[in-house]
Here is the input.
Amino acid sequence: MKRISLSTLQSSVQDSSAFQQLSDYHKLTKCFLSFLAASKPTRIVSPSQNNYIFFQYGSTFSHRITRPLNTNLYVESDTEFSAMFSQFLSLLQDIKRSQQAVLKSKGCQQLINANVIGKIVYTVQQSIGSIGDSFDNPNQSRKRIGQLFENLVKLIIQELGLHCEPRTINIPIPGYDGYTMSYELDVVFSRNKAIIATENQYIHPSEIVGSVKTTSKDRIDKVFLDKYLLTKLLGREIPVIAVFLHDVQRAQRGDSIFGINSTFKTNHFLGYTVALKKLDGVYYVDPRPEMLTNQRLREHIRDFQQFLVADLWSLSGP
Here is the structure.
């Protein structure tokens, strides 16, 4: 079998026609994990948080370093990943059939307790991100990595039988005839495809708006502002949720460049929650420890798996 190269993986990430199905994400991730096993890049454990690692590529790629990877979620074995991916797809089908009742199934509960959804989503997206980190210029891939995460979340929601697509809307500004405000929405989803009249093509009352970002850094204020403005301009409450992959980055810690730094701004998050409009759900694939221990944050933030197995169905109605 021909050994996969990092250059080939780079081309795959850049292919705008790819990633139409979840199986495409499986294939790329498996190839990347196989590449790691075959090429054996330097594996570096963060001295500040030992559950985070980095891979450093060889001289061909100028010894570039990947983003931090949480080993509690990142599946490094390609065979283990493939087996877990099959469980992931099976669990999604069970959720589609049973919705919230899936929590009563013993077999499904075992997969949920093992955080199969979180591990698969994290491994897939961080593999894509790690491939992106090998480019000469990080800006070559940063936008593409974000797009692929949005698309991944969209495909997962679609796999559960919901209608889910990105949408651009142009909202008239009240009191200013002829002026509109353009909004690009990452995803809009509903349990049934909403019928929206062409003369009022905005957001149907049965639809939920989702903001999907790899990190909340420099983005959390916009999510709250979107909720506030959409509700204000459309004259009714618009449900808005946010899905984030993580909030960590590499940081200098003493003499080491392999420290871990949180990019989540607790006070800003709570301030926006009070001053603007509370979001209808905030979900992380890799939540920071303080999100689990801080009672104030726990009231608003949950993990992404909880969204799929429970909150999605209560949000989208009967």
Q: What stands out?
A: The first helix runs from residue 6 to 14. The chain has two domains: 6-139, 159-315.
